[in-house]
Specification:
two-stranded parallel ribbon, two-stranded antiparallel sheet, 20 helices, globular, AhpD-like, L-leucine binding, cytoplasm, oxidoreductase activity, acting on peroxide as acceptor, Sestrin
């Protein structure tokens, strides 16, 4: 038997995230391995370039925590400090041209198309990247966007801030640390109601009709109460000075998420039975960047299947219906439809308040507020809240990579057709 070998430790700046993730040791190890490989391991991009790309990504979601983290890591990796003045001061033109893909993957990944890949890799008159560099950059961008969702959801605070600043932000973390057993603000019957809903789902045979599933999928986007709302978060307040700070590393902050069903473009629903992570996305990334692809796959599978069979104070609970509702709802927000799933289960499992929380964390993380946090999962254990936020992070990340890898596939097909002419 091969002796157990823990993954190398991440730099200290990651501690605020790891302290939360440690409530799930089975997830923590593959997370550390993936982050180590993606940001510090072998790859076509140099380490300081990766951190700069991550700075660009963190700016899209105005996430002060991730911006602080990657500024420090960029400096530690020997990056040119002049670049930290902003993207226009970056002397690597290949990074500058990634700003378009940064915007798309952060907010409307369905607009990442074969033409996007073409412009970034075949620009003969200007800067361009190799396919391997582009794949590495796209994963860094997408993973950082997802990390912003997680960091804002848990109210992560940089370890270097003063004690007075930390104290003023402490209330943001109280909700996460408040287990069901020690809270006086318990919502009566929250868990009991969820258990009844689960039992009803098991008792009633699923319709299975494709038309019914399609109708319910589209209706998920017709409920204004689950839209992103609320003010800016305490660490990402929308005053002019901070907004200017975030605009250093990206352009056009007015470009943001739009409801998939309300979009003005002609993009069709992404059907998983036509292009899936297991059969397509994983395969194409494995060919171009195999060092990290398996680690991403491990995280996706573990997060979806992670369970301790508990919900609040109840034990021996089958939580699969709830976990699937969270995962599939997030991907539905990005126009991804699982044809074998009855989307009426989303409305059965997730309250309006919970859908608002999930959508805000996934699509508008800078808008997460204490009131949003305090309004959901009141009866959940702290570790169960963390698990939900891990699912938001990973489901969102997978959605972005599905669109990116489909664009790569279409790019390959277009390139082959051009070569045959």
């Amino acid at each position: 038997m091969t002796p157990y070998s823990p993954p190398p430790a991440l730099p200290r700046v990651w501690e605020p995230l790891l302290q939360v993730i440690q409530s799930h040791p089975r997830y923590e190890e593959p997370f550390v391995r993936c982050i180590n490989e993606l940001f510090y391991g072998a790859g076509p991009l140099r380490v300081h370039e990766r951190h700069y790309i991550a700075l660009m990504a963190a700016s899209r979601h105005r996430c002060s925590f991730m911006l602080n983290l990657f500024e420090r890591e960029f400096e530690a990796a020997g990056g040119d400090l002049g670049w930290l003045k902003g993207l226009k001061f970056c002397k690597n033109s290949k990074l500058i041209v990634l700003d378009e893909m940064n915007r798309l993957l952060a907010h409307q990944p369905w607009l990442c198309l074969a033409d996007t890949i073409q412009r970034l890799t075949k620009n003969e008159s200007g800067p361009h990247l190799s396919l391997q560099e582009l794949v590495h950059a796209a994963i860094v961008l997408s993973h950082t966007h997802a990390l912003c969702s997680f960091a804002e959801a848990i109210g992560a605070v940089p370890i270097e801030i003063s004690s007075s600043e930390r104290q003023s932000m402490a209330s943001r973390c109280e909700w996460l640390a408040r287990d069901k057993e020690n809270t006086g603000a318990r919502r009566k019957g929250e868990i009991e109601d969820l258990l009844k809903r689960m039992n009803r789902l098991r008792a009633v045979a699923a319709d299975g009709s494709d038309e019914r599933g399609k109708e319910t999928f589209e209706r998920l986007h017709e409920q204004p109460e689950d839209g992103g709302s609320g003010g800016d978060s305490p660490t990402s307040a929308g005053d002019g000075s901070l907004l200017q700070n975030f605009q250093r590393f990206t352009g056009n902050l007015s470009f943001t998420y739009v409801d998939f069903q309300s979009r003005s473009d002609s993009t069709k629903t992404f059907k998983i039975h036509e292009f899936s992570w297991d059969q397509h996305g994983y395969v194409i990334l494995e060919d171009l960047y195999n060092e990290v692809t398996g680690k991403l796959d491990e995280k996706f599978n573990l997060t979806q299947n992670l369970t301790y069979k508990t919900m609040g104070q109840y034990e021996d609970v089958d939580t699969s219906a709830y976990r699937m509702a969270v995962w599939n709802y997030i991907q539905a927000l990005y126009g991804i439809r699982h044809d074998d799933y009855d989307y009426s289960e989303v409305n059965t499992m997730l309250s309006r308040e919970m859908k608002t929380f999930i959508k805000t964390v996934a699509c508008f993380p800078h808008r997460v507020t204490d009131s949003l946090r305090n309004g959901v999962m009141v009866d959940f254990k702290a570790s169960e809240k963390v698990h939900v936020m891990l699912m938001i992070m990973e489901s969102r990340l997978q959605a972005a990579l599905l669109y990116f890898t489909r664009a790569l596939t279409n790019y390959y097909a277009s390139d082959r057709r051009s070569a045959m002419r």
